[in-house]
Amino acid sequence: MPSENLAGRTIAGYRLLERVGEGGTAEVYRAEHPERGACAFKVLRSRLASDPTAVKRFLREAGYGSRVEHPGVVRTYDYGEADGLYYLALEWADGKSLAEYVHRVGPLAPALVASVVRQLAAALMAAHQAGIIHRDLKPENIVYDATRQAVKLLDFGIARDAELPPEERLTRTGFFVGTLKYVAPEALSGELVDGRADIYSLATITYWLLTGQHPHTGRTPRELFQQLLTQPPQPLNQAVQGLRFAPALEAAVMRGLERDPARRQPTVAAFADEVTAGLAAGSTTPKVGLLDALKRVVRRRGE
After folding, report:
1. 198: annotated active-site residue
2. Which of 51, 78, 83, 136 is catalytic?
3. Helix axis angle, 195-211 relative to 98-105, nearest 10°?
4. How much is the pTM?
5. Which segments of 232-299 are extended strands (E)?
6. CB of 53 closer than 8 Å to CB of 61
7. Mean pLDDT for each 10-residue chunk of the chain (303 residues)?
8. What are the structural domains of the chain?
9. Cα(183)–Cα(168) distance, rounded to whole angstroms?
10. Which of helix, strand or coil describes residue 268?
């Protein structure tokens, strides 16, 4: 059953102009504020307002996001409850999701991928320095402005505070949070993760941006779950027939995808540095066979 459209109302000083997105737990509106101008206004669905867990998660996203101040992170203006609704007011970021952009244009040039990775690493470093582990890094949670080739990170809904005592931040045994295609293997058992889990997710995004493929090829959640726990990822230079990258670039990406967190780069910044160095170490112009090029053209025309 569709929920009430709140466009036209003013809540906590924000005038809601139009509904621009909705999900299972919240709706997003384009809004105007007399001092802040254009904003994104996120509202928890009314049916969840009486669910303490849903409310806690929603407010946690707001609280964690407000602790991270960086140009590469969508700014949190304020949050709370007004008119019986839980809301979150955010900076309005121009662009579309990185997922939407790549689905439309196909894999990105290595130099552009390196730029995107550096920007995301800087944003994640700001979060880690604020004691926040994102845990749900994926293209859908990244806003990409193609005109400026700039990215902004959003959605701290399942982030966690690295400074909380273990008994308050452990995930229930046997459960994990995140998106299976991008989640770090150590998170699958519900164990405590640190910033290296975000490195794994960033490496997976890098792999996907370069190839249009994922490091593991499981077709079902069960198959993918097992692969993440037991099988090494497909080497970058084997992801697409005829597509080749500099060995140093492949090594940097595959190190970020190590199943053992201790074997990854120590920080997201170090991962970005290795990707950049790998790009500069040798020729990184992808060599794609004619058949692969034709397949991409056909796929783009069909979208």
Report:
1. no
2. 136
3. 20
4. 0.83
5. none
6. no
7. 82 96 87 95 90 85 81 91 92 92 93 96 93 87 94 71 43 51 86 88 97 92 89 95 94 97 97 94 52 44 42
8. 10-91 (3.30.200.20), 96-302 (1.10.510.10)
9. 21
10. helix
